[in-house]
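Archive entry: two folds, one per protein. Generate the first.
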Amino acid sequence: MNRRNSNIIFTTILIFSLTSIAYPQDKPSEHLAKAIDELIDVFDSNGWEIWKIPNAARDALIALGPPVIPSLFKSLDHQNPRVRNWCGVALEGIVAKYSRNTKVKMDIPKEVMLKTMKEETYGENARRLAITLAVRFNGVDAVQPISELLSDENLRVDAVEALGMLGDSSAVPLIGKAYENGDLRFRESALRALGNIDDASAIPILTKAAKDSNALIRKTAISILGAVGTSAEISLLTNAMGDEHPEVRNAAEYSLYKMAGKLASRDERDKAIELYKMLFENTDNFQHAKDLFSGTNAFQHARNIADKLKALGVEVDLQARFGFINTWMVIGPFENKDGKGFDTVYPPEQEIDLTKTYRSMGQMVKWQKATTDDVMGMVDFMKIFDPKIDVVAYATTSLTLPEEMDVQIKAGSDDTLTIWVNGEKIHAKNAARGIKIDDDVVDAHLKKGKNTILLKICQSSGGWGFCLRVVDKKGKPVVGQLGN
């Protein structure tokens, strides 16, 4: 930057300082506007090379406050993106500094912002920022002028989002009227704005939208009803759990969960319990709940519901709900040095005779009963067998059914896992890992009558154990008689 331009900038900053003394902040100055225009012209040419100078000038503008807003607005559509950004940052700085000042200092920004919002000659960038600043400067006074932009095809989304930020119930009927004539994007934004306003007057609009032909609109409305709705909407949300679109079903379940919490906090205990129980019985798909509850797996979500019910004085059985098998006959340990036990055939693979004993690793091993009260049915071999490193153990149970059926066996193990059903090997996973619910999912066919399940878990070091459940094709626990 040459000396001439530097002098212009510093002279302009000096003009700002003098103007701030000569003119009160509630009276704009033609001299001030001219000074700002000159400053921007310099910046537009080559005044950006020394970054401290435009920053100092911007700080001076912020110090001057509301009187500089008209000139800054005018430059928000400048062809130079650096100029636009500089003006926008200065305007934000003025908002931050003066938004809580007296009403006298608010009159000019309010007038200018409202004028900028309405006049297309200012350009969309300036008008959008005017909407944002009007929300921050003028609060509920901006509801009416902003609502007038709901018919503006270019700014109606910005306007409805701003009305949602204002959170005033007087905007609800205005948004509702505009919603009927909007495109998909606007209608979704309008529903979210109603959610932000959080007023009962929005419920009729939301319940109607929850039955819309468009899945995105249904999903959005249903999601919001969980926060703003009342117990009167439970039936609608429950029906939505059967929607043909999974994202709508997810939203319905989430909203019902939120609503149950609201009912509990309002001392509507019986309604909360009824709702939590219904959700507990209908949480079947683990991946579904993981997507729905921000990374929490479905079993953890079910545990959360169980905790909510316990706080309300109701106990539920997580093991039974998800079909975890909690009683087994187990035997071990057998040798697994260098991981060779995975392929080694030990006696339980040749016969399951619960009366037999075998010599293994310098000791006699026999079948013994293992029962777990762990909520996910985890059998911890570390508490049963010794030694605990480089070893193998087996577990078996039987499931007697009234009819044959196709099922899924869902299991987690630490470390490896091999599964036999009625003597047929149906799964073998050689992996060093910790226990994770449903880590392995295996299709199987169970016959009518007694079905025998045998597991083999190899251990190197660290934790050692497994959990397993049997469900039908819809994810419901298979009901049968357990035994050995």
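Generate the second and append.
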Amino acid sequence: MTPPTVRVPPRPTGRPSARPARDIRDSEHENRQDMTLDYDILVIGGGHAGCEAASAAARMGSRTLLLTMDMTKLANMSCNPAVGGVAKGQIVREIDALGGRTARITDRTTLQFRMLNRSKGAAMWSPRAQCDKGRFSAEWRHELENTQNLYIWQDTAAELLFDTAGERPRVTGVRTCMGVEFTARAVILTAGTFLDGMMYCGEAHAPGGRAGDPASTGITASLAAMGFETGRMKTGTPARLDARTIDFEALEPQYGDENPLKFSFSTDTSKSLFSGLHFARSARHVAYRLRPVAALQRHDPRHRTALLPLDRGQAAHLRRQGTASVIP
């Protein structure tokens, strides 16, 4: 068999090409997606909202850049490895009806599906799917990397760029921590709690977006310089528990729906095959001794705490749901 011919590009000679600094294109590789520093849409933040925004913009024909701190944590489930519940369950389905991707990826990674609030009126029914945390993020990355017109850049946005020549300032792009300047006709900011993020654990606190990830600094100052009022919103992450320290025999199982539904209205996803997987739920008399400064849990004997796995495998850690672990 004749080995395939490998085409080696010729070594450049003489003076370098007078190619524009803003355009890094190679016309010899027609099938390769071009890299440029100028976009129609620039999305800052690779969480759930940022992934949906970037995907939608690109699929509608806009040359889109998604700027994220860590490409391995796209659409990461930081607090709760689930999609749905009251409000978010309805929103995800509405986005799906408009062509969004979250519901489809949820269906591909579901561990257990339940329709919550069945005892109430139909208006309060809320779909919820416990998902495989690792696969959910991996599926989102695969989705984005295979979307035409969409580019991903791993870096931290440090400053918003504005054109102040007109009557009103107009955002024109962003400068990253590595000094790269991107320009765009519109900038979508979905950095969430990472903006000047501060993490609290009891009486201790430290800057950060979540455990193990730094805060995003600079964007808040850029907005304040343009006259925006800034503040801080709270979010909380339930504690993780070592499954090896839990007596599951003393816990009550909670099963998924016998006939689970799907999140997406599309026909390219199927119902969960793991709907029978159950999660241990603690008995009513279980009590937690928490420092008052770290949690303001009410001592309600009716309160129940769910223990939920983070992935489909034999996870060594569980997430405790139903116990406040931050100061409101």
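Annotation attached to the second fold: Residues 1-31, 275-303 have pLDDT under 50 and may be disordered. Residues 155 and 275 are 38 Å apart (CA to CA).
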